[in-house]
Amino acid sequence: MIPQVLTIAGSDSGGGAGIQADLKTFQELNVFGTSVITAVTAQNTTGVQAVYPMSASAVESQLASIGNDFTISAVKTGMLFDHEIIEVVAAAVRKYGFRKLVVDPVMIAKGGASLLQEKAVEALVQKLIPLAKVITPNIPEAEVLTGESIRNMEDRLRAADDLLSMGAECVILKGGHAEESDAWDLVVRGTEKYVVKSNRLHTQNTHGTGCTFSAALTAELAKGKTIRESAYLAKCFIYQAIKQDLHIGNGHGPTNHWAYQESARHLTGGGVIVEPVVLSRHS
Ligand SMILES: Nc1ncnc2c1ncn2[C@@H]1O[C@H](COP(=O)(O)OP(=O)(O)O)[C@@H](O)[C@H]1O
Ligand SMILES: Cc1ncc(COP(=O)(O)OP(=O)(O)O)c(N)n1
């Protein structure tokens, strides 16, 4: 049976991030995508012009439609906007027995627009993160969640341990916002620690990288891959999506969701490697 997956996220009218990025990624990775919309954003490559959150009951009723019918193999969350939506989502994860939950703690869009109310961070930490198989913060999100600034590899390792203590099985601390010449993501699961890395690509067309990465991770987990395999494949997917950029719009353009199918699939990783954490190399 084809794996069925669910994204619980906001709509990006520009098609590069949110629900649209997730469904495109699911399609490319051969899983059947369903969606629960938490907010509608008026958004394009130059930024977010407006945010229209859904009511918690509208989210609850979409979750019931999915939970009562589909056999969901993995779920991801993106933009959740407020604490009421987070509470409804956490209750549904329990009620419908959604397994393999990937929490992408989306907070702020690249242009600076807030996609999560400040007072909802507590609900994310208390209610949703403890249910997660994997959480995928970027560096600024990890700083908000832990209350610590992150400047080097030691900070990242400490932040990942703090995040793990919130109850998720695994943390993937993404490195897109760092300044190293490589773009690498730190994966920590219990005592297992490694980095998944590629060279850093120089392009402004990186809108929706986090959504696309976490959707690819969710798709691979749904197919029964391990976290390590899924992190590697998701990184291969996003690497090609950034590398073969599309030049759409006038600002930060979307990534190319076709790219991986078109070429990288036939390469071994296309330049992505997994290696152990070595402080002197990654500090
Ligand atoms: N310029 C880049 N070159 C290569 N990979 C990148 C680049 N920017 C981001 N990535 C990768 O894209 C994924 C999303 O990372 P990040 O940009 O940190 O997330 P977010 O979109 O949530 O801010 C990660 O796997 C990261 O390593
Ligand atoms: C509706 C919606 N959800 C999430 C985001 C943020 O997506 P992300 O992948 O973190 O990409 P950037 O916004 O950083 O480009 C969004 N913008 N809209």
UniProtKB/TrEMBL annotation:
GO biological process terms, alphabetically, are: thiamine biosynthetic process
Any idea which UniProt keywords this protein has? ATP-binding, Kinase, Nucleotide-binding, Thiamine biosynthesis, Transferase
Pfam family name, one: Phos_pyr_kin
Q: One GO CC term of this entry?
A: cytosol
Q: Which reaction does it catalyse?
A: 4-amino-2-methyl-5-(phosphooxymethyl)pyrimidine + ATP = 4-amino-2-methyl-5-(diphosphooxymethyl)pyrimidine + ADP; 4-amino-5-hydroxymethyl-2-methylpyrimidine + ATP = 4-amino-2-methyl-5-(phosphooxymethyl)pyrimidine + ADP + H(+)
Instruction: State which pathway it belongs to.
Output: Cofactor biosynthesis; thiamine diphosphate biosynthesis; 4-amino-2-methyl-5-diphosphomethylpyrimidine from 5-amino-1-(5-phospho-D-ribosyl)imidazole: step 2/3; Cofactor biosynthesis; thiamine diphosphate biosynthesis; 4-amino-2-methyl-5-diphosphomethylpyrimidine from 5-amino-1-(5-phospho-D-ribosyl)imidazole: step 3/3
A molecular function (GO) held by this record is: ATP binding
List each copy of the Pyridoxamine kinase/Phosphomethylpyrimidine kinase domain by range: 12-256
Write down the InterPro entries for this protein, in alphabetical order: HMP/HMP-P_kinase_dom, PM/HMP-P_kinase-1, Ribokinase-like
The leader peptide range reads none
List the CDD domains hit by this protein, alphabetically: HMPP_kinase
E.C. numbers = 2.7.1.49, 2.7.4.7
The UniProt entry's sequence similarity note says:
Belongs to the ThiD family.
The name on file for this protein is: Hydroxymethylpyrimidine/phosphomethylpyrimidine kinase
